[in-house]
Amino acid sequence: MRVLVVNAGSSSLKLALLNETDEVVDAITLDRWSGDDETDDIGTFVDRLPGVDAVGHRIVHGGARFTGPVRIDDEVRDAIAGLAELAPLHQPRGVAGVDAVRAVAPGLPAVACFDTAFHHDLPAAAATYALPRDWNQQWDLRRYGFHGLSHAHVARRVAELVGPGRRIVSCHLGSGASLAAVEGMRSVDTTMGFTPLAGLVMATRSGDVDPGLVLWLLHHGGVDAGELSDVLEHRSGLAGLTGGSGDLRDIEAGDLALAVYLHRLRREIAAMAAAMNGLDVLVFTGGVGEHQPAVRAAATDGLAFLGVQVSARANNAGETEISADGAAVRTLVIPAREDVEIARQVRSVLS
């Protein structure tokens, strides 16, 4: 089955056709895609493809309802759109991607693949917020987790490269970032929560912030809810600490922003290992995780107590395995391939 994978970002749209063996036959990235009735380039791309059997859409939030991939019809499309408040940066764009491809190829079966689904069966102790029980039940308040398509792909690749049944900490590091503790193929903990705002320091997102601080800003700092939302999503993280773009490549060693980023990252790697009572494999993936050896080296420095030791030569050479000789924990660099996981899920649903 040849699958057209659609990944709608905050300002771009990526489309790639994967063949039966998950090789990319053709791909296009629309860097300045607003999501508003811009289908000419999409239509031109789809028309030139050598046959498409189905479409798979990356959707960030599945809420409590969508715990696995699902074929898209009008009712499912509207239900996905109704979750926009849970992921305001991403959900409307995912729906716009569904609409845009449907407009140029209305006859193709389409499947929604959710970033939250991989974490849907988190242990109750990891998923539950210590809020009033009736609140949690009334509003489906829980830790949903994100980047599940990437973490799932990492887990499958580790099983192929190292063997099944390993305790894995998967580090998806990009402009957005999260970790997942994975035992076998099950997520048992993760750093993101009810929304993609929680957890690690990110390019423009704050990650974890004391809720009492947020309440203080609302009640005593003269900050309204709209401004607070904008700051936490767009003007915090590395961008907020440096006054720049939030791109790690532009931040010099010794900068406080980098120290904060790495401190949180090291702390959360250890926390994920604690959730599994140990660690067998540490994986770096995502744009930063794959392409910035200095970040990998600094993140793993000080984790020898977990058995993590990295070879400077292998790390700087960009090898797949960067473990030092004799290290108790295998440390790998695995390219992020959400497209492969989406294609797998599409075939599973439609078969």
Structure description:
- 42% of the residues are buried.
- The protein folds into two domains: 3-114, Nucleotidyltransferase, domain 5 (2-Layer Sandwich), CATH 3.30.420.40; 163-333, ATPase, nucleotide binding domain (Nucleotidyltransferase, domain 5, 2-Layer Sandwich), CATH 3.30.420.40.
- 38% of the residues lie in helices and 17% in strands.
- A hairpin with a 5-residue loop joins strand 2 (13-18) and strand 3 (24-30).
- It has a six-stranded mixed sheet, with helices on both faces. Strands 9-8-7-10-11 form a five-stranded mixed sheet, sandwiched between helices.
- The protein has 14 helices and eleven strands.
- With 351 residues, the chain is of the alpha/beta class.
Key phrases:
351 residues; alpha/beta; Nucleotidyltransferase, domain 5; 5-stranded mixed beta sheet; 14 helices
